[in-house]
Amino acid sequence: AAQLDSTVLLTGESGTGKELAARALHKHSRHASGPFVPIHLGALNASLVESELFGHEKGAFTGAAERRLGKFELADKGSIFLDEIGDMSVNTQSKLLRVLQEQKFERLGGVETLAVDVRIISATHRDLEEEIEEGRFREDLYYRIKVVNIKLPALRHRKEDIPLLVNRFLQYFSKKHQKRIVSLSNEAMKFLVSYDWPGNVRQLKNVIESAIVLSHNEILDTIDLPEEIKHPENAAMPLKNIDYNLSFRGAKKILIENFERDFIKKKLEECDGNISR
Fold this sequence. Notes:
Layout: E1 8-11, H1 18-27, E2 36-40, H2 46-54, H3 71-74, E3 79-83, H4 90-102, E4 104-106, E5 113-115, E6 119-124, H5 128-133, H6 139-145, E7 148-151, H7 162-176, E8 183-184, H8 186-194, H9 200-214, E9 219-220, H10 227-230, H11 232-236, H12 248-270
Parallel strand pairs: 1-6, 1-7, 2-3, 3-6, 8-9
Antiparallel strand pairs: 4-5
Helix pairs in contact: 4-6, 7-9
């Protein structure tokens, strides 16, 4: 797929590595010598998306003090990566469709039609066919962006990759944090391989970095792993941990606080730490 100019849609759960796959597509394409320009559409306010994509002229709207080039213009002769395209408003989708069809657009507030040569790679964790049925995504745009569809599997469906990823992260974060961590114990690896990783590769990466930062030994062991990795049954069954000696109100308060903390933590991981999302 990389060596063709067809649009590519990368799908899969959050944290499976869609941007890495997009960069690999760019690296092996005829646009490799040009820029790779990512834009995270889910992190942008709807009113800002068009300005980010297409740019604007001075005075196009309140606060537009100078001309600004959009991502499509910056990606000319290269590739643009439209991350979380499923979060884009229907109105902006129609304008994006024209760019896909003609590779032409105007800056906001401008009259000049600009032409670009851009490889378009999109990604989403949403089910776009379901979004189409609900009227939240244009069907014609869907077929434009998914000439080639590459589905990235969740980490729990490719556990044979976990040791490879762990070794890579050990090397990377040991160097980054200037710590001598040479390996991971067999027992710790068993826990990592048996865990289901709801946050996928991103969660695994964070766990390894945290373990390296906090460890005082050259070999990471089970003591360096978070409790939810070693005892996932406790995270899945919070009712087991209720102190029945408390009052009803007191036990309920603790249970709700624990649930809120875990739920918000999971959502922040899914949204790359973006609080607005």
